């Protein structure tokens, strides 16, 4: 979602007239809409089984779902689950990464890994699962795939990103420290999980670092002032993007323009609180939810006090 926001921020920054109209039309044609929100509306199921309506919180909450299905694969997997909170004052953006192995209660089913919710019931069931977990209304949903990372990276001429640990071999090798990546290398960078020290947790941090690096590169004069590069980026950022039926291009553009003063230091990445690792009854590895920490996160989202939560939970 932040990369799409970047695309629309670019539209707000470029000169008006025919070129801006052309880019806007391209984005509008690329983005499609589906039923991604629960038909029951914003509700949560309490431990006693009763259902309560969730009040509208402060600010906006966007659920971003990313799929890492390779060509030829038909199984639906939600390999990226990120909740983006845009506060009412538009002075910051918080991105909360939910590890795919987080062990949670899925409505209508037994406890399972959170990415199983998407496999069982698509985006609507994943939304319901998160609303139950946090007690927070999710306003909008967007889903895309990892291939967009490659295309966007190539569109801006590559990115420079920091890696916490080395991985890969040959041309796909990533060294600890700073790396200059093209599209294929970026795709390998954000996909890697098995060789990293904390598996999906480490991969989540890599994805966060990459998204931030790509956003920064997107908003540089080298992209904004280059019509060819700019057109390629807007096309790549919006191709294969699906949003819920309540979210149209006009709303996305308005949200983006309201965030045009956001800088890299205003973008905060957080991993949803978990207390450790364990084993599910079926023998699979799981991440155990930190119940108190999740309750605190939900309260911060509802009351639009994520700045305070981030200060308390994120080590500089």
TrEMBL record:
This is Cell envelope-related transcriptional attenuator domain-containing protein. InterPro entries: LytR/CpsA/Psr_CW_biosynth, LytR_CpsA_psr. Pfam families: LytR_cpsA_psr. It comes from the Bacteria. The lineage of its organism: Bacteria, Bacillati, Actinomycetota, Actinomycetes, Micrococcales. It comes from Knoellia locipacati. Belongs to the LytR/CpsA/Psr (LCP) family. Residues 77-217 form the Cell envelope-related transcriptional attenuator domain.
């Amino acid at each position: 979602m932040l990369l799409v926001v970047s695309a629309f921020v670019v539209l707000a920054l470029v000169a008006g007239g025919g070129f801006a109209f052309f880019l806007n039309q391209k984005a509008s044609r690329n983005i499609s809409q589906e039923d991604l929100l629960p038909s029951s509306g914003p509700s949560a199921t309490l431990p006693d089984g009763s259902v309560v309506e969730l009040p509208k919180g402060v600010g906006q909450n966007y659920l971003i779902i990313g799929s890492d299905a390779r060509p030829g694969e038909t199984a639906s997997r939600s390999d990226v689950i990120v909740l983006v909170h845009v506060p009412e004052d538009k002075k910051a953006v918080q991105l909360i990464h939910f590890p795919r192995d987080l062990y949670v209660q899925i409505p209508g089913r037994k406890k399972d890994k959170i990415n199983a919710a998407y496999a069982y019931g698509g985006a609507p069931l994943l939304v319901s699962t998160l609303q139950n977990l946090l007690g927070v209304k999710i306003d909008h949903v967007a889903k895309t795939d990892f291939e967009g990372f490659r295309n966007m990276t190539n569109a801006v001429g590559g990115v420079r990103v920091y890696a916490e640990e080395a991985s890969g071999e040959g041309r796909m090798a990533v060294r600890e420290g700073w790396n200059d990546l093209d599209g294929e290398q970026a795709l390998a960078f954000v996909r890697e999980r098995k060789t990293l020290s904390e598996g999906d947790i480490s991969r989540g941090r890599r994805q966060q670092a990459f998204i931030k690096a790509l956003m920064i590169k997107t908003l540089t004069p080298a992209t904004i002032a280059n019509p060819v590069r700019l057109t390629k980026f807007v096309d790549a950022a919006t191709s294969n993007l699906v949003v819920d039926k309540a979210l149209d291009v006009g709303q996305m553009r308005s949200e983006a323009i309201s965030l045009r003063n956001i800088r890299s230091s205003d973008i905060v990445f957080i991993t949803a609180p978990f207390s450790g690792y364990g084993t599910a009854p079926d023998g699979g590895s799981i991440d155990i939810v930190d119940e108190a920490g999740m309750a605190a996160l939900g309260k911060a989202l509802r009351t639009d006090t994520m700045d305070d939560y981030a200060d308390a939970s994120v080590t500089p």
